Amino acid sequence: MRDNLTNLKYTNELQQKYSNLTRSVNEEFINIHPIQRGGILTPEAYKALIAYADGYSLCDNCLKGRIDKIENPPVIEFLKDSASYFNIENIMPTGAARKAKQIVMKILSKKYPKRKTVVVDSLAHYTTYLAIETNDLRVREVPHEGYPEFQLNSERFREIINYVIKQESEPPLLVVLTHVDYKYGNYNDPNPIGEICQEFDIPFLLNAAYSGGILPIDCKNAHIDFLACSGHKSMAASGPIGLLGFKEEYYEDVMVHSKIEGNITNKSFHNKICTFMGCPPVYGAPLVTLMASFPTIVKRTQEKYVSEESKKVNYVIKNIQKIKDLKVLGVLPKIHPLTNVETECFQKVAETHPRRGFFLREEFKERGIIGMLPGISKEIKFNTFNLTWDQVQYFTQVFMDIAKKYQLL
Fold it and tell me: Are 376 and 351 in contact (CB under 8 A)?
C-alpha cells in the first residue's frame, strides 16, 4: 500500500496529466474531419450537456426502472417521435450503431437458428463484420463495381442471395446495406435492396450510421426491417449513442423481459430488458443531447437542406479537380458530403518535403482548417456538412492555394 508521501506525489502526477484536457478545436478553426461534422452539437445540445453531464443524470425522475419509460425529460416521447420520423414502428437507444447491428444479429440467430450467413455490401464498416463474428455467423460480400466509383449494383445482392441458398440450402440470416459508406461517402439507395429482401423473405438492416440525421430515411417505403443509426456521427449528439429501429413483428424478439430469479433471495427483474442489459448505457449526456438536437435533425434532413449540402460539397469538388494528379473517388455528383480524394500530387511533394506526409495537415492548419489525418498525403478525406457557404468557399480557396504553393496548378 502506498504511504502518504507516495500518494501525494502520485496524485500530483495524475493531476498534471489529466486536469487540463483540451482540444485544439475552437471557433478560430474550421473542422472538416470526415466523421465529426454530423456529430457537432447544436446550441440546444450544448445547453442540455451542461445540465445532464453527470453520470446517470437522466435517471433523476425514473419511476419505472426503464430508460425508455422516463417522462421527465421526455424520453418516452422522443422514442415515439423518432420512430415516426424514420417511419418505423419502434426505436430504442443503444450504445452505438455497432451495438444495434450486433443486437439484430443476435436476436435473429435465435429466431432462425439454421441460417448462418449475413450478406453485406463490400463497403461495409468494420463493425458490421465484428457484429457478424461475435455472433458466430458467416459473411458473404456483395462486390462493388471497382475503381474509381466503387458503386454498388442492387442486382448483385440477388446473385449473392441465390448463391447462399444454393450452397447452404437456407436463405441468409440477414442482408445489411451501408446507406452511406465510411470510405467514399457513396449513397446507396435502400429501396431496390428492400424489394429483393421482401422477395426472398430475408430481414433487411440499413446501416445509417453516416446518414441518419443527414439524409432522409423512410423505413416503411424502403421495406427496412431494422435500422442502425449513430447519434455521435450524424445526429449532433455527444457520444456514444446509437438508435435501433425495428418493425413491430420483431418487438417480442428485441424486447425480451428478464425471467431469472435468485435461488436464495428470489430476486427477479421482470421489468428489465435483457437485450439492453436492463437499460442501454446512455444515461445522461448522450441521450439528452440527441433529444435536444432532434428538432434540428428533422429540419436539416428536409429536401431543401439536403440539396444545399450537396451543392456545397460538389462546389468544392468542381474546383479542386483542377489540381494536377488529383482524383475524387466515389460516385459523382455527391449526395452525401463525406469525400475521399486521391492525391498523388501531394504524395509527390511529401517525398521530398522535410515534414514528409505531415506537411499537408500543417499547411491546412496554418490557414485555420483542421480535421485532416496526420501523416497522410496519398489519400485524404473531408466533410463539408453544415459549413456555411463562406466556410466552404474559404476551404476551397485554401485547397487551391496550397496546390499553387507547390506548383500543382
Answer: no
